[in-house]
Amino acid sequence: MMASSYNAKEEDGHHSGAATHGGPGAVKSKKPDNTAFKQQRLPAWQPILTAGTVLPAFFVIGLIFIPIGIGLYVTSNNIKEFEIDYTGVDISSPCYGCAKNYSWNSTSCFCSVNFTLEQPFESNVFMYYGLSNFYQNHRRYVKSRDDSQLNGDRSALTNPSKECEPYRTSDNIPIAPCGAIANSLFNDTLDLYHIDSNGTKSAIPLVKKGIAWWTDKHVKFRNPGGNNNLTVAFQDTTKPVNWRKPVYELDPSDTENNGFINEDFIVWMRTAALPTFRKLYRIIQKKSSTTPTLPSGRYVLEINYNYPVLSFDGRKRMILSTISWMGGKNPFLGIAYITVGSICFFLGVVLLIIHHKYDTRNNSADIPN
User: Fold this and answer.
1) How confident is residue 69, by pLDDT bands cut at 50, 70 and 90?
2) Looking at CB atoms within 10 Å, which of 192, 197, 280, 314 has the fewest?
3) How many angstroms separate the most distant Cα atoms in the chain?
4) Closest by Cα among 152, 106, 128, 131 to 247
5) What is the predicted pLDDT for the residue at 314?
6) d(CA 39, CA 33)
7) C-alpha 191: how far from its chain's center?
8) How confident is the model at residue 327 (pLDDT cuts 50, 70, 90)?
9) Backbone phi, then psi, for 115, in 5-degree steps?
């Protein structure tokens, strides 16, 4: 309904915005101005909720959400996933010795974990490493980096940001890359082998490029310019405290995957939101349409155990997974759609019963004057 032209102040004998007359001691009126805004008379639309509008809405939402949820849930369940914990907490674990005796300053430790795939993995297979009880979302941890340095700025290379403290310098030499995130880089090496029926062990090709976001690889992370020789480019810096080798030796065989643009390093620098997370490690590409990428059978995971986690009660695991159009395995979205759709449909049925049972309106009743 449109606002009326009624003017309260004019009825009181005052004009809009005028003060009360009565000499020097007169007090201004505290009444709001008689405007549509201040008197809350602006044109407005308010829906009138009736059974004829509410009930169809509940049923439509239910009929749309439930099939979508079922489709999402089935798609998620069709994704194959295999996970193996290699932390070495149990004394029976092959990596128990490495886990108990390893620290950041220890020499490399090697262990092997045997497992069996009951079902073959088709299409491309993605290998992830997973960590638990690792809080990459801590505020000081997230801020402990220098994005200018990671973008190849030479001044930031030799004078890192103070946000990197206490991993800004080592023996008064600037650290590259600086900060707590880079210092805690995951550095386990994982190799996968298939064991055929004859007991022959054959290596599974693992692709290490293409695992980082394109924008990170080509925009956010760059090596210092001016010299293609990274050893010279980083000569006035030192490696992070917990690293075994400097940043220019992360992948010396491939100049497109070395230094700040190393994809393992880039993946790690994108911090996780939750304490239990996984990060893409390698891709196993499908070679033939007639044979599965990973046939069912026996496998062995060989681990260069470099990353200690028992000090913070953490766990390490390796995950093999396929993907679909909706990404990795995650049944939550499908369950959420099914739950919301079922609740709406149930409420629609309940309200329909109440409407028919208790609706006592008489449309032919006389309307009093």
Assistant:
1) very high
2) 197
3) 112
4) 152
5) 94
6) 8
7) 26
8) confident
9) -155, 170
Structure confidence by residue, pLDDT tens digits, 202-258? 999 999 999 999 999 999 999 998 667 899 999 889 999 999 999 999 998 888 899
pLDDT digits (tens, 9 = 90+) for 283-315: 999 988 788 999 999 999 999 999 999 989 999
Count CB neighbours of 206 within 10 A.
15
CB 200 within 8 A of CB 300: no
pTM of model > 0.85: no
Point out which residues pair with 300 in neighbouring strands: 114, 193
Q: Is the pLDDT of residue 11 over 90?
A: no
Kindly tell me the burial class for residue 29, based on how many C-beta atoms sit within 10 Å of its own C-beta (0-12, 13-18, 19 or more). middle
Tell me how many helices (H) and strands (E) the chain has. Answer: 11, 10
Contacts of 175 (CB under 8 A, 6+ apart): 160, 164, 167, 168, 169, 183, 237, 238, 239, 240, 241
Of 267, 303, 319, 316, nearest in space to 190 by CA: 303
With tokens 């009181």, the residue in question is 12
| Cα separation, 112 vs 301, whole angstroms | 6
Average pLDDT over residues 134-140: 95
The tokens for 364 are 């032919």
Tokens of 327: 């990404």
Q: Specify the higher pLDDT residue, 369 or 248.
A: 248
Q: Rounded to whole angstroms, how far apart are CA atoms 272 and 56?
A: 42
SS3 state at 133: coil
Distance CA 194, CA 196 (A): 6
Q: Distances in Å between the alpha carbon of 3 and those of 7, 8, 12, 39? A: 11, 13, 20, 10
Inter-residue contact 134 to 277 (CB < 8 Å): yes
Task: Tell me what pLDDT residue 368 has.
Answer: 52
Per DSSP, the residues of 199-255 read --EEEPP-B-SS-S-HHIIIII--PPSS-S-HHHHTTT-B--TT-SS-GGGSSTT-G
Q: pLDDT value at position 197? A: 87
At residue 271, does pLDDT exceed 50? yes
